[in-house]
Design the sequence.
């Protein structure tokens, strides 16, 4: 409840903590923990055993529906948002399921179902998941593993700060939870 009256001190009052009451908006670096569950309630991913994730708000660096849900929240806020595939990792495209000759995959070693491979294509490197291994061919799926899924994010915002000029220019976060370069 970041904006409920009586809870949020006024910016010029003695008790006001600027850091604490920063909100997620353009050019802020937002750090958060999340747990991702699918429509069946199964946990798909969590950041809880790691450092919180950090992103630059307004730079399209996290999925659109999640960024929209973050907007206006303050540090310390927890919330849940359920996203349809269109607002998360997109709908599945069956054209991304392809049969690849095994001889194109020389040097990869033994290939098994569920394995994730980086395929060199004329559109550059594409990450695919192995669906089926035959004698001469392998069926692979180039859709994102979370494509076509309704996803619920349980989010806790752990920190918000101003982005540096350099971060704004690069369009991403530097330091912990962000780009290391
Ligand atoms: Zn950079």
Sequence:
């Amino acid at each position: 409840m970041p904006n409920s009256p009586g809870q949020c001190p006024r910016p010029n009052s003695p008790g006001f903590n600027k850091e604490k009451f920063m909100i997620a908006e353009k050019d802020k670096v937002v750090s958060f923990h999340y747990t991702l569950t699918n429509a069946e309630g199964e946990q798909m991913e969590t950041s809880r055993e790691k450092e919180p994730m950090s992103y630059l708000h307004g730079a399209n660096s996290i999925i659109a529906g999640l960024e929209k849900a973050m907007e206006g929240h303050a540090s310390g806020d927890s919330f849940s948002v359920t996203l349809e595939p269109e607002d998360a990792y997109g709908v599945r495209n069956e054209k991304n399921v392809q049969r690849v000759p095994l001889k194109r995959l020389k040097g990869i070693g033994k290939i098994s179902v569920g394995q994730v491979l980086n395929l060199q294509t004329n559109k550059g490197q594409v990450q695919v998941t192995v669906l089926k291994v035959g004698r001469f061919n392998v069926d692979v799926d180039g859709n994102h593993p979370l494509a076509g899924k309704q996803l619920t994010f349980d989010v806790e915002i752990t920190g918000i700060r101003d982005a540096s000029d350099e971060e704004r220019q690069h369009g991403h976060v530097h330091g912990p939870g962000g780009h290391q370069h």
